[in-house]
Amino acid sequence: MVAEVKQNGVASKAQLMSVKRGEPTLVAPAEATPTGKQYYLSNLDQNIAVIVQTVYCFKRPSSGHGHEGAVADMLRAALSRVLVHYHPLAGRLGISPEMKLTVECTGEGVPFVEADAACDLADIGDLSTPDPTALGQLVYSIPGAKNILEMPPITAQVTRFKCGGFSLGLAMNHCMFDGLGAMEFVNSWAEMARGATELTVPPFVDRSVLRARDPPSISFPHREFEEIADISGMAALYGEQKLVYRSFSFDPDRLERVRALALAGGDLERCTTFEALSGLVWRARTAALGLAPEQQTKLLFAVDGRRRFVPPLPKGYFGNGIVLTNALATAGDLLASPVSRAAGMVQEAVLMVTDEYMRSAVDYFEVTRARPSLASTLLITTWSRLAFDGADFGWGEPVMSGPVMLPEKEVILFLAHGKERKSINVLLGLPTSAMDAFKDLLDEI
């Protein structure tokens, strides 16, 4: 019954929005940029070439900051200026002679769409839960695109609402930047819209600093790529039941209770909020899915390597500076142990990420061209430290922002929540029965 109500709610919201798009135009860099060559993407960029869609919502601009009809023109002009600095975004994805993803520096520009919604901004909800059916109308996708090579690195859509508010919807390929890089790009775009002539954090565009070693040297097992057999029938469960999305809020008091749980077992002297919360949701999801005791389950998450590389990556590095790390356990062992054990495995996975581990990961891809396997896996991605709400284009910060969808069914997103960003929303999708069980487990905290 919960799934039916949810499904009906999504449908009615999507119909209520009824977004009408105009024809896309191309926004090219405002000045000449390097063209006619290939822009190098590192091995850390190759593994995560998925489209990430986000929406930023703004109240009606005051008369002193451009009326609603001028918003799109202001954003378009500022985008043109910021693309001078981020010129690869104006190109198109291609394949290098080494059969890796690259960017063809064509300079043709970013597809930009203006749209109108037949509702007020308040009608779309609070963006606390991914909603591809409704929120997907606020982001522009290339019609008929069959693969990422047919999609530009980024598209932008400005949607005007009846109340005078508007949204900015972005579809960005993760191979172009990680969360921090994307945040710096959006904030730089906002700076240009506010009239800046210099960027606070200019992008460092040379990704060759992360080239593989010659010869490559693989010094770690890199179990993040390991294929795990599904002996618990998870594929059948996901195939038989609807995928339900939910958001679970953890305020500071609740987060402190989670940390206390992680420390209670005596395995850890200290742990971060991320380590404690990751251990908790890994155990809860494993239990909710009803995995067989002997089922291997893998936890993946990204660690920001910018300061962990030796030397550190340059400030403003335009690219993926994140490296996937992992923890493995059988479902039986994970559930038979306290939360402290799961949090401890997360902590061990964080500590494993040294300069040598990251160089080894770069070299591993160079030799194997492997992609991380998501079979029997939970992939946690955290936006809790990303200040996307600080994107002030001249009419104030967004009143809300969030993802349109999760890129894979195995992904859980940690998203900062609240005015002071001290709460965390945990966003995920699960089959209906597993979601009910997951909710019951988290309600105990």
Notes on the protein architecture:
There is one protein chain. This protein has 445 residues and is of the alpha+beta class. The protein contains 12 helices and 16 strands. The protein has helices at 2-17, 43-46, 71-82, 132-135, 179-193, 234-240, 252-264, 273-288, 331-336, 339-351, 355-368, 432-443; strands at 19-21, 25-27, 38-40, 51-58, 92-95, 101-104, 110-117, 154-160, 166-173, 243-250, 296-304, 322-330, 377-382, 400-403, 411-417, 423-431. The strands form 3 sheets. Strands 1, 2, 4, 7, 8, 9 and 14 form a 7-stranded mixed β-sheet that branches. A 6-stranded mixed β-sheet has the order 10-16-15-13-11-12. Strand 5 and strand 6 (101-104) form a beta hairpin.
Topology:
Elements: H1 2-17, E1 19-21, E2 25-27, E3 38-40, H2 43-46, E4 51-58, H3 71-82, E5 92-95, E6 101-104, E7 110-117, H4 132-135, E8 154-160, E9 166-173, H5 179-193, H6 234-240, E10 243-250, H7 252-264, H8 273-288, E11 296-304, E12 322-330, H9 331-336, H10 339-351, H11 355-368, E13 377-382, E14 400-403, E15 411-417, E16 423-431, H12 432-443
Parallel strand pairs: 7-8, 11-13, 13-15
Antiparallel strand pairs: 1-7, 2-7, 3-6, 4-9, 4-14, 5-6, 8-9, 10-16, 11-12, 15-16
Catalytic activity: 5-hydroxyanthranilate + (E)-caffeoyl-CoA = avenanthramide C + CoA; 5-hydroxyanthranilate + (E)-4-coumaroyl-CoA = avenanthramide A + CoA
InterPro entries: CAT-like_dom_sf, Plant_Fungal_Acyltransferase
GO molecular function, one term: acyltransferase activity, transferring groups other than amino-acyl groups
